[in-house]
Design goal:
142 residues, alpha+beta, Nuclear Transport Factor 2, Chain: A, 4 helices, 32% helix, globular
Length: 142
């Protein structure tokens, strides 16, 4: 892969991360393929598989609502660019009215032939802490 597509993908990923936790999801949706899939691991209220732009938009709005707009990816620790994927390890700060959590998330994003993000998977360094932070359990185990 030449440097130009890699730089473009990195810029798209960074823009995506700036938009996560924002209730206005229009900019985020412009980065996503219409058939995007978005998977959040864990056993908490925001975990699951979301397919299509509408489902992903609803999920992103739910993050903003659950964190009162305080989902802040403030530092990228590491970033790797592959043939079709970009992975980024991000320090984040999330806040609800009663708690604050600082942790790291790994975002794995896949790009399609049109250079749109068509798959996102989110992993947590401290899944238990995230589950306690959201304080709501799911039964499907995703």
């Amino acid at each position: 892969m030449s440097d130009a597509p890699a730089r473009s993908r990195v810029a798209r990923v960074q823009e995506f991360l700036r938009q996560v936790g924002n209730k206005d999801v229009a900019k985020t949706l412009e980065l996503l393929s219409p058939d995007v899939t978005y998977r959040v691991v864990g056993n908490h209220v925001l975990a699951g598989m979301f397919s299509g732009r509408d489902a992903v938009a609803a999920h992103l709005v739910a993050i903003a609502q659950k964190t009162s707009g305080h989902f802040d990816p403030f530092k990228e620790d590491d970033l790797m660019v592959g043939v079709n994927h970009v992975s980024v390890l991000v320090n984040i700060r999330m806040q609800t009215p009663v708690s604050v959590l600082r942790t790291r998330l790994l975002f794995l994003l896949r790009f399609n032939a049109s250079e749109m993000i068509d798959q996102v998977t989110v992993f947590f360094e401290e899944l238990g802490a995230v589950e306690r932070f959201y304080d709501s359990r799911r039964s499907d185990g995703l």
